[in-house]
Design brief:
The protein is α/β, with parallel strands linked by helices and 249 residues long. It has a single domain, classed as Aldolase class I (TIM Barrel). Helix content is 43%, strand content 16%. Strands 1-2-3-4-5-6-7-8 form an eight-stranded parallel barrel, surrounded by seven helices. β2, α3 and β3 form a beta-alpha-beta unit. The radius of gyration is 17 Å and the shape is globular. The two termini are 20 Å apart.
């Protein structure tokens, strides 16, 4: 199996679940911006949000307030995820984050559960990718770990792919774990060969993260929300971020 290169994988903390808890009351706590600030202070290299049209967690105001916060953290990155056919592009035009991650979610989807498909999605994605890049925003496409799809993702001028890692997480600790790692390693290598950067995310946690970045080549960034925020309820933001950074080291 291919070993990952010795570069450092960046940790981007997804703060959606902080907003989800806040939204259960009208008190403004816990604070999304305070959570992001504490994670950045602990060494996280970025902050991710996925504002859905129904605002069930991240709201439009959060996107703007986090963009303002990130101005005080040069060298750290702001990543906004979402479906570019819904509300994502409005945020990209207004905020111009470092990275836009295109995710093919329906409006009422519970959570992301699949990547883009080519050639079916190429025609509608290409002009949206071009618009982001004209605004100076890096584009990552949420993709299943299918090596044959990576060249097609590059053909629409994407900069990176984010490998959807739930199947790997589901196989963790089972006889299928090694095969899943091989599949992701092959997909990542195909992406690198096509000239794409490689991100990863979905259900990565303190148990399965180190093995993933050790065996999957060239992972530039992982975006982690649910597990990290759950750990932070027990450990606090700072200790949790440091624990995840230790996995990436």
């Amino acid at each position: 199996m291919t070993s990952a290169s010795p570069h450092r994988t960046a940790l981007s903390v997804n703060v959606n679940k902080v907003a989800l808890v806040r939204n259960t009351r009208h008190l403004g706590i816990p604070s999304v911006t305070r959570a992001a600030e504490l994670c950045l202070q602990a060494g996280a290299q970025g902050i991710t949000v996925h504002p859905r049209p129904d605002e069930r967690h991240i709201r439009a105001q959060d996107v703007l307030e986090l963009a303002e916060l990130m101005k005080a953290w040069p060298g750290r990155e702001y990543n906004i995820e979402g479906n570019p056919s819904q509300n994502l592009m409005d945020f990209i035009r207004q905020v111009r984050p470092h990275q836009a991650t295109f995710v093919p979610d329906s409006e009422d989807q519970f959570t992301s559960d699949h990547g883009w498909s080519f050639p079916q999605d190429a025609e509608r994605l290409a002009p949206l990718v071009a618009e982001c890049k004209a605004l100076g925003v890096r584009v990552s496409l949420f993709m299943d770990p299918v090596p044959a799809q990576m060249a097609a993702a590059r053909a629409v001028d994407a900069d990176r792919v984010e490998l959807y890692t739930e199947p790997y997480a589901a196989a963790w600790g089972t006889p299928g774990q090694a095969a899943q790692l091989q599949q992701y390693a092959a997909a990542a290598q195909a992406a690198l060969d096509a000239g794409l950067g490689v991100n990863a995310g979905h259900d990565l946690n303190r148990d399965n993260l180190a093995a993933f970045v050790r065996q999957v080549p060239g992972v530039a960034e992982v975006s982690i929300g649910h597990a990290l925020i759950a750990d932070a309820l027990e450990l606090g933001y700072a200790q949790t971020v440091r624990a995840y950074l230790a996995c990436l080291a």
